[in-house]
Amino acid sequence: MTITRNSASAFALAAGLVLGASGQGAFAQDDVTVIELTQTGCQFIESEDGIDRGYAPTQKADCETINAETQGDRLGDENTLHLKPGSYVFRVTNEDVPYMLGFYLRSESVLDRPFLPSVSGGGLYEGVSKDYVIELEEGEYVYSCPLNTTPDYKLVVSDG
């Protein structure tokens, strides 16, 4: 996962991010934090320690089957993305999935969904990247692709 922050406090923010063991990078640019995520079949690569599992779905149902069988072994607490409250751009790329994908970031708790910000959208055809802008507040979130049926990856936003 590549993270870029555009402001004078870029390196302070980047140093405070806990991103698991996936080798993500951070560097200063102008005035926004960009988090880059790459979708391949049934997964976000960066959210699984940078490992491309090599799944080759031809339809959503393929991912539903694959993830039902494998996501328990693939995901753990070390895959949780930790961020501070603030403005973010999630830049999502469909690397090689032959059908349209999307992105959906929302509160982990159904009860909190009316109160915490969310962002979603589609139109991610093979080779296409899109930016999803959001102002994150403290809370626990998940992000996924409902069209590629990825797991719900965790995102925790806190000042601590």
Report on the architecture of this protein.
It is a single chain. Strands 1, 2, 3, 4, 6 and 9 form a six-stranded mixed β-sheet that branches. A five-stranded mixed β-sheet has the order 5-11-10-7-8, with no helix packed on it. Strand 10 (139-144) and strand 11 (153-157) form a beta hairpin. It has 160 residues and is mainly beta. The protein has a single domain (2-157), classed as Sandwich (Immunoglobulin-like). It has two helices and eleven strands; from the N terminus they run βαβββαβββββββ. It has helices spanning 10-16, 60-74; strands spanning 2-5, 25-28, 33-40, 43-44, 81-83, 86-94, 101-107, 119-124, 129-136, 139-144, 153-157. Helices cover 14% and strands 39% of the residues.
Looking at this protein, list some descriptive labels.
5-stranded mixed beta sheet; 160 residues; single chain; mainly beta; Immunoglobulin-like; 14% helix; 2 helices; 6-stranded mixed beta sheet; globular
Summarize the structure.
The protein has 160 residues and is mainly beta. 14% of the residues lie in helices and 39% in strands.
